[in-house]
From TrEMBL:
Molecular functions per Gene Ontology: ATP binding; DNA binding; DNA helicase activity; hydrolase activity
Top-rank taxon, per record: Eukaryota
E.C. designation(s): 3.6.4.12
Recorded catalytic activity of this chain's protein: ATP + H2O = ADP + phosphate + H(+)
Domain Ku intervals: 258-399
InterPro entries for the chain: DNA_bd_Ku70/Ku80 (IPR006164), Ku80 (IPR024193), Ku_C (IPR005160), Ku_C_sf (IPR036494), Ku_N (IPR005161), Ku_PK_bind (IPR014893), SPOC-like_C_dom_sf (IPR016194), vWFA_dom_sf (IPR036465)
Described purpose of this protein according to its UniProt entry: Single-stranded DNA-dependent ATP-dependent helicase.
The entry's keywords: ATP-binding, DNA damage, DNA recombination, DNA repair, DNA-binding, Helicase, Hydrolase, Nucleotide-binding, Nucleus
Matches recorded under Pfam families: Ku, Ku_C, Ku_N, Ku_PK_bind
One GO cellular component term: nucleus
Family in the record: Belongs to the ku80 family.
GO biological process: DNA recombination; double-strand break repair via nonhomologous end joining
Protein name per UniProt: ATP-dependent DNA helicase 2 subunit KU80
Length: 668
């Protein structure tokens, strides 16, 4: 596994980083097998257990744990994963004994090397003994088996797989097989979320036929950790200071600004036309719809009649009530009948008593192929009429033949889609269950770096995460002829209905203070490679082809603390150059888009003064030459950034609204 050692370090480091954020009292230990040396307590006391090294004793996670993971050595001899499991199990039992708590082992292996024969019995007996010990001490294990595609399965691998699945059949181990470094990153669940039921009760098929079910969330978006406000007002000598920031609100009357309005004299009001309608909390409670808790079947329909793009929110899992044999049989019978008939069920759900809304959704049968896993249903929320957005677009077939693709163009586009297929026959790339969120992974990595180096800049995206966010460079290189054919099939031509725009002499401003001509990318020369896999050296330039996208790419890079300021300055220079070279509105659309993008970015990045000064100075300098452009800005409500949009702004909403009017009055 030397080729994916860095990915192993990354996945284990992320586990430690999350524990430092969420579970700072958790304890972690590290055991390596396949090492030249032997260092573990069992080897010292009993002998054997060779080439197994305890790299980090079990203790509360800290920076030392993270440092130990980054210094993992590469193994040099074949490793015995059963010996490693026994050593890890012994460490946990020695540390915690029979105390209650959640304990788990995580095994990452290729399982390609032969295991030593036990001194007594068979390897299968040894697995049963280990499984009994794990059950006795309530210890679970996750096993990740990594093998690259095309690896020939010999007798040793078959035996190792059989032993691992024997663990799984004893309900003490979860076994996952992955075949790529990206899947390896997402295979280990670095943060276990406790299963909490959304609903426990009856699935009412009819008034006299009810099935006891439990409902769990199957998917839920993982959020960024909540950032907490920190106060530095406490004296440094106070070791027990919580540094907590508390916020209190006071409501005052407009008539008497110095008088605080108590809660019993306040009431909510809702806008209704030009007036405000006051509604008390008691009235609001009376208006609320209060359905009874329960899940009721409305009927069945063909699976094809439920469109997947109508699914909303999170997915839930309906399982029969644990230990209820009748419920298990009923759910299994209905699920298998629905599966055979290709049907789904429409249900009405009210998860808890007092819930103010009703959820309608679809139950899809989930027929299990594993003996010890029950049949169940997947639940997806369906939209109401108000939730659906109907957008009418012109049919492509209604366009004239000159605007439709030729057979050659269609074939080139088809080949591009096939080339980037993530699910080729026999293999699926970027499986959701094995693909981690690159933003979260990068956040935890940078949080750890920032804790060690407060002045550290955001590092470049790691290679293993780029495999998720960018097309596979190996595929792009191998299929370069297909990309070039696509570029040749779609030739760019000048539109004779529009005035000829400058294409040869436009200036693209680079990182320096002076402008220099930069050749625009041509489809014939570069194909779509610039779109599919843009070269990193182009990030830092704003070019004519897609200036807004280039600007957003510069903002997203953030390779240093000054990068945002640099991106804003480059966009200001580029936009100014566009306006200075515009004549009678022949090129107003592009600077309009640049102004809008620059304003949006300055609001997001909390740099309102940069935009306000730029707009003011540009208006004063060019109002005589491109007056129509500023009228266009005014009509699009692109004005100064007000304090309501960005707290750091000194401009009120009234000042922003009247900016162009005041400037015109001042000039007159």
């Amino acid at each position: 596994m030397h080729g994916v050692l860095q990915e192993v370090k990354n996945i284990c480091s992320t586990l430690v980083h999350k524990k430092l954020v969420y579970n700072r009292s958790d304890e972690v230990g590290i055991v390596l097998f396949g090492t030249k040396e032997t260092c573990n307590e069992l080897a010292k006391e009993l002998g054997g257990y060779k080439h197994v090294t305890v790299a980090h004793d079990i203790k509360v996670v800290d920076e030392g744990t993270s440092q130990a993971l980054q210094n993992l050595p590469a193994g040099s001899v074949p490793g015995d994963f059963l010996d490693a499991i026994v050593v890890g199990l012994d460490m946990v039992i020695r540390k915690f004994g029979n105390t209650k708590g959640k304990r788990r082992l995580c095994l990452i292996t290729s399982a390609q090397h032969p295991l030593r024969d036990p001194p007594e019995g068979t390897k299968e007996d040894q697995v049963d003994t280990i499984a009994d010990q794990m059950k006795r001490h309530d210890i679970k294990m996750e096993c990740i088996v990594f093998r690259e595609p095309g690896v020939h399965h010999d007798a040793v691998m078959e035996e190792n797989d059989r032993l691992l699945y024997q663990f799984r059949n004893r309900s003490v181990v979860k076994v996952v097989q992955v075949d790529s470094p990206t899947s390896l990153l997402g295979a280990l669940k670095t943060r276990n979320v406790l299963p909490v039921t959304v609903f426990r009760g009856d699935l009412e098929m009819s008034s006299n036929f009810k099935i006891k079910v439990w409902v769990y969330k199957k998917t839920a978006e993982e959020k960024f950790p909540t950032l907490k406000k920190y106060s530095d007002k406490a004296p440094p000598s106070d070791k027990f200071a919580s540094h907590e920031v508390k916020v209190d609100y006071e409501y005052k009357s407009v008539v008497e600004p110095d008088k605080v309005v108590p809660p019993d004299q306040r009431i909510k009001g809702y806008l209704y036309g030009p007036q405000v309608v006051p509604i008390s909390s008691a009235e609001w409670e009376a208006v609320k719809f209060k359905p009874e808790k329960g899940v009721k079947l409305l009927g069945f329909t063909d699976r094809s009649s439920i469109l997947r793009h109508h699914f909303m929110k999170d997915v839930c899992l309906f399982i029969p009530e644990p230990g209820n044999t009748k419920a298990t049989l009923a759910v299994s019978a209905i699920a298998r009948a629905m599966h055979q008939m290709n049907k789904v069920a429409i249900v009405r759900c009210v998860w808890r008593q007092g819930q103010g809304n009703v959820t309608f959704g679809v139950l899809t049968p989930n027929v299990s192929s594993v003996n010890n896993v029950q049949d169940s249903f997947y639940f997806n929320v369906l939209p109401f009429a108000e939730d659906i957005r109907e957008f009418q677009f012109r049919s492509f077939s209604s366009l004239p033949s000159s605007s439709q693709p030729t057979e050659e163009q269609q074939e080139a586009a088809d080949n591009l889609v096939k080339m980037l297929d993530l699910a080729p026959p026999g293999r699926e790339v970027l499986k959701p269950e094995f693909t981690p969120n690159p933003m979260l992974e990068r956040f935890y990595s940078y949080l750890d770096l920032k804790a060690k180096q407060p002045d550290a800049n955001v590092p470049a995206l790691e290679r293993c995460l780029r495999r998720i966010t960018e097309p596979d460079p190996d595929v792009i290189d191998q299929q370069m002829p297909l990309i070039q054919n696509l570029g040749k099939a779609f030739e760019l031509k000048e539109n004779p209905k529009k005035k000829k725009a400058r294409t040869q002499d436009r200036l693209a401003y680079t990182a320096g203070d002076q402008a220099k001509p930069v050749a625009e990318p041509s489809m014939e020369k570069d194909g779509v490679l610039g779109v599919l896999h843009p070269p990193t050296e182009n990030i830092g330039q704003i070019r004519d082809l897609n200036p807004v996208q280039d600007f957003e790419a510069m903002l997203a890079k953030r390779s240093s603390s000054t990068w945002v300021q640099k991106a804003i300055e480059e966009m200001q220079k580029y936009t100014t150059a566009l306006l200075e070279n515009s004549r009678e509105g022949d090129n107003y659309q592009k600077p309009l888009e640049c102004f809008a993008a620059l304003r949006k970015a300055c609001i997001i990045e909390q740099e309102p003064e940069e935009f306000n000064q730029f707009l003011t100075k540009t208006y004063e300098r060019l109002k005589g030459d491109v007056a129509n452009f500023f009228q266009l800005l005014s009509s699009k409500n692109i004005s100064l950034i007000s304090k309501e949009e960005a707290p750091d702004s000194d401009v009120t909403e009234e000042m922003a609204r009247s900016f162009y009017l005041k400037q015109e009055a001042a000039s007159q």
